[in-house]
Automatic annotation (TrEMBL), chains A, B:
Top-level division of the source organism's lineage: Bacteria
Stated name of the protein: Cu(I)-responsive transcriptional regulator
SMART domains (UniProt xref): HTH_MERR (SM00422)
NCBIfam families per UniProt: CueR (TIGR02044)
Organism: Falsiroseomonas stagni DSM 19981
One Gene Ontology cellular component annotation held by this UniProt entry: cytoplasm
Alphabetized Pfam families for the sequence: MerR_1 (PF13411)
Length: 130, 130
DNA sequence: GTTGACCCTCCCATGGTGGGAGGCCCCATC
DNA sequence: GATGGGGCCTCCCACCATGGGAGGGTCAAC
């Protein structure tokens, strides 16, 4: 099948399929006319990638996950370690964003939010407080 | 003062100061030799920007915040609205990241993590389950 | 008068994705 | 057999914010 059909079957855009090929994450055979040609296995790989992206794995992790997937003698411990490292990174980012949101919400709670100019948010940014 | 001193006094890198100027967020006067010249007010502006960045405001929001800051007749409601919108965006992202982390952690909890290849994480990515 | 620290501009990279231009290919329909 | 439309190709640009570095000018101190 051509790239368009592989895209719609896998849920990965044609644009991204070409990009993944350009960074060596996947490969494709070419027809005589230069068109990329894909089979069911390629679609399975693309779906794997999409699911991993849904779990926010960075592409470099996905590269390793693909290798582990295709390694019949893999140790599940390697997969788990990769996953837990990623979970830790996600949680660190989530926690950090939430902390920032909390402190800004705290500031906003003390802002009247009316027509007057006085505003603790501006004061904080200005450095009057912090 | 030159850009280097403005950078160290404000906590904004010289690189970023030049960038902020290039996108029209700030401006700078030039000396005869072409060097940018900054005064205390400029440093205050840079600090304002840095504090806003610490609160993860995007630069386009900061552009508006700077205008509000310098508008003596501003309505604090405008500032508050901007801030609360931003808080909502931050919380949405934090929640989404945490949700992804949770589901991946759940998968990892069911993975033995030993030397055997069987791994529910890989199964999920492969689409065997989902 | 040289050295070293600072400044200048311009380009490139990150990470993942989308948009679009310009051009080729293939099939169907007239 | 010609034409039209949709799909495919490559290559460049954009986002967002930041950092790195090359190649070259400037200034101060020694």
């Amino acid at each position: 099948m051509n790239i368009g059909e592989a895209a719609s079957r896998s849920g990965v855009s044609a644009k991204m399929i070409r990009h993944y090929e350009s960074i060596g994450l996947i490969s494709a055979t070419r027809r005589a006319n230069g068109y990329r040609s894909y089979g069911p296995k390629d679609v399975a790989v693309l779906r794997f990638i999409r699911h991993a992206r849904d779990l926010a794995f960075p592409l470099e992790d996905i590269r390793k996950l693909l290798a582990l997937w295709q390694d019949r003698s893999r140790a599940s411990g390697d997969v788990k370690r990769l996953a837990l490292d990623h979970v830790a990174a996600l949680e660190a980012k989530a926690t950090s964003l939430q902390a920032v949101a909390d402190s800004l919400r705290h500031l906003a709670n003390h802002c009247q939010g009316d027509d007057r100019p006085d505003c603790p948010i501006i004061d904080e940014l200005e450095g009057k407080i912090a």
